[in-house]
Design goal:
With about 210 residues, this protein is of the alpha/beta class. The protein contains eight helices and five strands, in the order αααααβββαβααβ. The protein has one domain: Nucleotidyltransferase, domain 5.
Length: about 210
């Protein structure tokens, strides 16, 4: 692998473990890039989340990957936005997104959830995302999150709500559960009240 492929490298390499053990494959880099796009976290905030899927991911290999794909810096925002006060969120609020990963083996779907306050990130990679898998992802997130997950924020895509919904059905599902009614419901929206998680949707037709 030449210098252009590795990105900017110092002239002197420290002795020790070979670099080969930390070189990411094309498929692994695709996962890193797909995770970066919806999340946009700094380097330190999302190094550990992809390691469950990519065990050999290290800080240097992640940095090189980001440089190669031009995602090593957060996008600039307007000066007015830069000066605005940062909103403080309580722990346990998770925007959840679904990203598409293109690999040599074909298309994969990447679920991403990041706590707005702690930047704790949780991801899962699946061959094909379904509503049931989306519901399972929320349950796995709840198991993995050190603090309580109290809110999720997702788009109005079919994986997170019934098509055509402009408001979450979770409150109605919660009422039906409390009344002991028999009902059919969207897998993800059903998982929210069953785990005492408030389900919120972004504006219609917005990612």
């Amino acid at each position: 692998m030449d210098a252009a492929q590795l990105g900017r490298q110092p002239a002197h390499r420290p002795q020790g473990a070979s670099l080969d053990g930390t070189v990411l494959s094309a498929d692994e880099e695709a996962i890193v890039v797909a995770f970066r796009r919806p999340a946009l976290p700094p380097l330190d905030d999302y190094l550990y989340a992809p390691q469950a899927t990519i065990p050999r991911l290290t800080r240097p290999s992640l940095h090189r990957c980001r440089q190669r794909h031009g995602i090593s810096r957060l996008p600039d925002v307007d000066g007015e936005q830069k000066r605005s006060r940062v909103k403080v969120y309580p722990l346990g609020g998770f925007p959840i997104d679904l990203a598409e990963v293109r690999t040599a083996a074909g298309r994969l779907d990447l679920f991403v959830a990041i706590d707005r306050t702690t930047k704790f990130a949780f991801i899962e990679l699946h061959g094909r995302a379904t509503r049931r898998i989306a519901g399972d992802f929320l349950r796995h997130l709840i198991e993995a999150e050190p603090s309580r997950v109290h809110t999720d924020l997702a788009d109005n895509g079919t994986h997170f709500t019934t098509p055509g919904n402009v408001a979450p059905a979770a409150p109605l599902i919660k009422e039906a559960i409390a009344a002991g009614e028999i009902f059919r419901a969207h897998s993800f929206e059903s998982a929210c009240p069953r785990n005492d998680v408030e389900h919120r949707l972004t504006k219609p037709h917005c990612p």
